[in-house]
Amino acid sequence: MKPDFVTVTRGPGLLPCLTTGLNTAKGLAVAWEVPLVGINHMQAHALTPRLVSALGVGSQSGRREPEFPFLTLLVSGGHTMLVHSKALTHHTILANTTDIAIGDFIDKAARLILPEEAVLSSGEIMYGRLLERFAFPDGVEAHEYTAPNTRAEEMSRKTLNWGWALAAPLAETRSGSKSKAMEFSFSGTGSAVKRICEGRIAAMTLGERVDLAQEAFRVAFEHLASRAIMALQPLDKVHTADGEKIHTLVVSGGVASNQFLKKVLRSYLDVRGFPHIQLTFPPPSLCTDNAAMIAWTGTEMYEAGFESDLSCRATRKWSIDPNAEDGGISGAGCWK
């Protein structure tokens, strides 16, 4: 029994990897004489909760949740963006990183903070996951956290007993204008962690390392949460064309598996006046790049009438935003 269609990641990403997969998928589509559907993998991350819904109660009710529109926070080693997901192929980018991705920041911070013996004894190759376990040895549930009530409190430095503090990203630019910019930045926080560790890492106690790990997570995740709140404030006041408001914030990508991120975002939404916003995280197994999310997005695209021409090629850069120069998902060439 042959499939109805073949779906494959077309971009964005590394061309050699994408090309290998795409050529294989083309061969299968030709052999089975079925359509090919080339997928944007960032779109797939945004739609992953709809896959989870379809596999659960959603499959019984016929509804795919969350229903459009919703906000999507895509956080991984290569991407950090806040997206207004209005429809299957319409995802407007509200904020993007101006330097490094949050997953890259966490990875680099872990290599600086973690004791060598903790890395060697763990057998773990995912540094972010290892840093989370190191920062919260008793579990995130045991760690008390309440989001700051105001922007002023959020932007203030919190000096620990060790004599150092991590400033909020974009809080201390010369003009101060960046503090409200709809963008993400993690390189400055990464440099601050490096400066704290340089020259004294051998003298740092285990307790200080744990505190530094917790602060690195807190500052980075509060930065994400602040932009989500800034995006929700105007969107919560206006209705979309079909009369519906934002009810859901989807968090997807590899960093979405971090339990402290869930705690920070939920606390921010509750404290800042958005307790009605539902937070949706895919299960950890579906947070990182995976075949299931590509298959699901291919299903949604195929049902919506999208098919790729066999002449299509892999693309290193491919925006999900229809206002981008390449036209976003629908603007990519080779759709039939």
Describe this structure in words.
The strands form two sheets. The protein has a five-stranded mixed beta sheet with strand order 5-4-3-6-7, sandwiched between helices. Helix 2 (41-55) packs across helix 11, helix 4 (102-113) crosses helix 6 (127-135) and helix 9 crosses helix 10. 42% of the residues lie in helices and 12% in strands. It starts with 5 loop residues before the first strand and ends in a 5-residue tail after the last helix. The protein has twelve helices and seven strands. It has helices spanning 15-32, 41-55, 57-61, 102-113, 116-122, 127-135, 151-155, 187-197, 206-235, 259-271, 291-303, 328-331, and strands at residues 6-11, 36-40, 70-75, 80-87, 90-96, 248-252, 278-280. The mean pLDDT is 90. Helix 1 links the parallel strand 1 and strand 2. With 336 residues, it is α/β, with parallel strands linked by helices.
